[in-house]
Design brief:
Layout: E1 14-18, H1 25-32, E2 37-40, H2 43-47, H3 50-58, E3 66-68, H4 77-89, E4 94-99, H5 101-116, E5 126-127, E6 137-141, E7 153-158, E8 163-168, E9 176-180, H6 189-208, H7 214-236, H8 241-261, H9 265-277, H10 281-306, H11 308-312, H12 314-319, H13 325-343, H14 369-376, H15 391-403
Parallel strand pairs: 1-9, 2-3, 2-4, 4-6, 5-8, 6-9
Antiparallel strand pairs: 7-8
């Protein structure tokens, strides 16, 4: 095997996984030397009764806990700034995030603000701006998709400018990540589907993008295997605790993988569709993943073909000719999306054209695609994609994924 001449790998979070991980929170806070955390979450987590489980484990040890439960589906800079003021007003000394990627990314932003004593998160935008240890931070994911509990990246939306700002630092990682099967048992089918495909995208892009390395590869491949074995099974039996825990572990593995290897075109366009049109991130990943694989096939056919092994197992992998393995991976992803579409009764979309807003109207219009492609040019993930991307490339893929048409591989550059 040909390994990179030089690479780095980092995972700074202590990971606790099991069916009763939450009961360890008081002891963990004691070990961290803190006693007055702020809990960050959203209305969905509260409504599902998940916050109550966390509070039950805490209130035996402390009387009052500050809770902010109004984090939006897309983490927002103004909300981050507001929570930071609440943290300081209540003299909090740590952060507990209970939620999906938006909640955990919001918590990362709040932690950066209060630790750096800044008033506006925008001042810390970019890579490497945060250079020292932040306040103690525990993350409890309630979806199995973002892997944000294990990454050194926070994505926060600036709604006024309609862009997603990326913040990167090894110090953004939580001190502790708790993977507890109870946290995902109540996930609706469509959210389970989208977040599962989000994790699969993290793992697959981590495996073929430019900063891959042998350690990230091992995490990515196991993540693909666990998702392949458990996602559709969970969709049929949502209360399978072992399956739920396996998906949470897969999401975590994929998060660790892409935190080190980075991601590419699927995220480049996905961030843009989310920022411009308000499409949930996991939905973007599900729609775009087969297009990202097709677009990069001429550069990374070997690596993409190798992803067939964790998807289908040794026997089918060996039966598939080498030259057809990459194409088989793409077809399996499309088959998975089709199965998820049927199980969710159409709530897991196969193309951007079919995504509807809360008012029932089409969320993305064809005339939005040019703006999506323009915004995508400035996304940091563009630099790690195996093939270079310009405006025309991005518009081509955006147009194909909007209509659900096959990608015209003849138009892909062969640089």
């Amino acid at each position: 095997m040909n390994f990179p001449v030089y690479y780095e790998f980092f995972c700074g979070a202590r990971i606790i996984a099991g069916h009763d991980g939450l009961e360890r929170i008081p002891l963990l806070l004691e070990e961290l030397g803190v006693a007055n955390p702020i809990i960050l979450t959203d209305k969905g987590v509260v409504g599902a009764g998940l916050l109550a489980i966390v509070l039950a484990s805490l209130r035996s040890e402390m009387r009052d806990v500050t809770v902010f439960d109004d984090i939006p589906p897309d983490s927002d800079i103004l909300v981050v700034n507001r929570i930071a003021r609440e943290y300081k007003k209540n003299a909090c000394d740590s952060i507990i995030a209970v939620g999906g990627g938006s909640v955990i990314d919001t918590a990362k932003g709040v932690n950066a603000l209060v630790s750096e004593d800044e008033s506006d998160l925008f001042n810390l935008k970019g890579a490497g701006r945060i250079k020292r240890q932040l306040k103690p931070f525990i993350a409890m994911p309630t979806t199995s998709g973002t892997g944000s509990e294990a990454t050194l990246v926070a994505v926060v939306k600036d709604n006024e400018k309609k862009v997603k700002c990326i913040f990167t630092s090894v110090f953004l990682q939580p001190n502790i990540a708790i993977l507890d099967s109870r946290m995902t048992l109540t996930l609706p089918p469509a959210v389970t589907a989208a977040t599962g495909m989000d994790a699969l995208t993290h793992a697959m892009e981590a495996y073929y993008c430019l900063q891959k390395n042998p350690i990230s590869d091992s995490h990515a491949l196991l993540a693909v295997e666990l998702i392949s074995q458990n996602l559709l099974k969970i969709m049929e039996n949502p209360h399978d605790k072992e399956g739920r825990l396996n998906l949470a572990i897969a999401s975590n593995l994929a998060g660790i993988a892409f935190a080190n290897s980075m991601v590419g075109m699927v995220h480049t366009l996905g961030h843009s569709f989310g920022a411009v049109c308000g499409v949930p991130h996991g939905v973007c990943m599900a729609v775009l993943l087969p297009y990202g694989l097709e677009y990069n096939m001429h550069k990374k056919s070997k690596e993409i073909g190798q992803l067939l092994l964790p998807l289908v197992g040794v026997e089918e992998y060996q039966k598939t000719p080498f030259r057809l393995r990459g194409e088989r991976v793409v077809s399996i992803i499309r088959e998975m999306n089709s199965s998820l579409n049927k199980i969710t009764e159409g709530k897991h979309p196969l193309r951007f054209k079919d995504i509807l807003g809360r008012d029932g109207r089409q969320l993305i219009r064809e005339e939005d695609l040019a703006t999506v492609a323009k915004v995508a040019r400035n996304d940091g993930s563009i630099f790690m994609n195996p093939e270079e991307l310009n405006y025309e490339d991005l518009l081509m893929v955006a147009t194909a994924s909007f209509a659900g048409n096959p990608l015209d591989v003849k138009q892909i550059k062969k640089g």
